[in-house]
Specification:
It is a single chain. With about 350 residues, the chain is an all-alpha fold. It has three domains: about 80 residues, no CATH class; about 170 residues, Orthogonal Bundle (Cytochrome p450); about 45 residues, no CATH class. It has 17 helices and two strands. Strand 1 and strand 2 form a beta hairpin. Helix 7 crosses helix 8 and helix 8 packs antiparallel against helix 14. The longest helix is centred in the C-terminal third of the chain and has 31 residues. The chain starts with 5 loop residues before the first helix and ends with a helix. Bound molecules: protoporphyrin IX containing FE. The site of protoporphyrin IX containing FE has 12 residues, from helix 14. GO terms for molecular function: heme binding; iron ion binding; monooxygenase activity; oxidoreductase activity, acting on paired donors, with incorporation or reduction of molecular oxygen. It holds the Pfam family p450. Keywords: Iron, Membrane, Metal-binding, Monooxygenase, Oxidoreductase, Transmembrane, Transmembrane helix. Belongs to the cytochrome P450 family. This is Cytochrome P450.
């Protein structure tokens, strides 16, 4: 007589329920789901595991699969249970419209669970997103960037000093780490008045990304985490300090080194929008969004410039006019650099 364990039965029942649920979900996605009528692979439409396989196991190869599908299914196709891919540049102006034409809400699942809840970028409602984004806009205008130009220049000169000190040492320097350190220090300074710590790190802080992790997890997962401090903690401390100092908007404005969050704390934004918790999440978004993107772009530009002598020579020749006499004392101004046509083209190409 066969002997069955109660645990085995429970396990079989759980697996059975899970399978029935999975099959039901796949049927719903293929028949009643709002995207069910779009062309594309049926497996990809039924389950997200197909995308997972190509992006995680095959390390980011889903884009090539999508490209192949566009040849077969046309310019608009379904690439997973809840997303479409559109390969038609003319459709851009149809999709990305101003709020006056159509109000768009973000798809919250896209960014949920990464610790940014309450920040403008995670705000679903069109109106609230606008309200939360508005106070940040002046800092990214031309005038806003001109205001922080001396701080950026100081960081660039610090980096130049460090690289010069290594000249002739035979040491190999990883430029991706260097640029992450530079971008991370610039954005920490602009958001939180934090002094340069990554550029001063012996190895250019290759593990800066761990600063994005929640502090409790950081301490467990990364033994050096306590000394490193999380970005969240940095932001929370800075915002709590500025709140307790309670500077007037005039005093904050008078100092070009006042951080973005010092400005926001002293603004007339409703108190509910200025809580330490919400603003520190907003700061996390800027710290995260401003580091990897900038570092990667600098990395692309540097790689292609250094590996292509023709570009390198032309750029060096053009920069000589503005930087010929540079001795580490005074950085060139943005207003002079932006007049250089070839440099501007190189930057645009890197961004593209
Ligand atoms: C070369 C550098 C950069 C590139 C290539 C880049 C690229 C992008 C792209 C493509 C998006 C749209 C993402 C989406 O909608 O899914 C975005 C959004 C954003 N970026 Fe950047 N970025 C760069 C630098 C920065 C910097 C320096 C900051 C801040 C200091 C920043 C802050 C943001 C924020 C806050 C958003 C979200 C805006 C919103 O939801 O309203 N980015 N960026």
């Amino acid at each position: 007589m066969a002997v069955t364990s109660p645990y085995l039965s429970l396990f079989s029942i759980t697996i059975g329920i899970y399978c029935i649920y999975g099959i039901g979900l796949a049927i719903y996605r293929l028949t009643f789901h709002p995207l069910a009528g779009f062309p594309g692979s049926k497996i990809a439409a039924a389950t997200g595991w197909y995308e997972f396989y190509y992006d995680v196991i095959k390390r980011g190869r889903y884009i090539y699969k999508i490209e192949e599908w566009h040849q077969r299914y046309g310019p608009i196709l379904r690439i997973n249970p809840s997303e479409l891919a559109i390969h038609d540049p003319t459709y851009y102006s149809e999709l990305y419209v101003a709020g006056s034409t159509r109000r768009t809400e973000i798809w919250p699942r896209y960014r949920r669970g990464i610790g940014f809840d309450g920040s403008h970028t995670m705000t679903q409602s069109h109106e609230l997103h606008r309200k939360r984004r508005k106070p940040l806009e002046p800092f990214f205008s031309r005038q806003g960037i001109e205001r922080i130009e001396p701080s950026i220049a100081e960081e660039a000169m610090l980096l130049d000093e460090r690289l010069n000190a290594m000249r002739g040492s035979g040491r190999v320097v990883r430029l991706d780490h260097v640029f992450s350190a530079f971008a991370g220090d610039v954005i920490s300074r602009i958001c939180c008045e934090s002094p340069a710590t990554f550029i001063q790190d012996e190895e250019f802080a290759p593990h800066w990304i761990v600063r994005m992790l929640p502090f409790g997890f950081l301490l467990k997962a990364y033994p050096g985490g306590a000394g490193f401090n999380s970005y969240r903690l940095l932001a929370m401390n800075h915002i709590a300090d500025t709140k307790s100092q309670n500077y007037s908007p005039e005093k904050v404005n008078a100092n070009a080194k006042s951080s973005i969050f010092r400005h926001i704390v002293s603004s007339d934004m409703p108190e509910s929008e200025r809580s330490i918790e919400r603003l520190s999440r907003e700061a996390m978004v800027l710290l995260g969004a401003g580091t990897a993107t900038t570092a990667r772009t600098l990395g692309f530009i540097c790689y292609y410039t250094l590996s292509n002598p023709r570009i390198r020579e032309r750029l060096t020749r053009e920069l000589e006019g503005v930087m010929g006499g540079y001795d580490g004392g005074k950085a060139p101004r943005w207003s002079d650099l932006e007049k250089l046509e070839y440099l501007s083209a190189v930057i645009k190409e890197g961004l593209r």
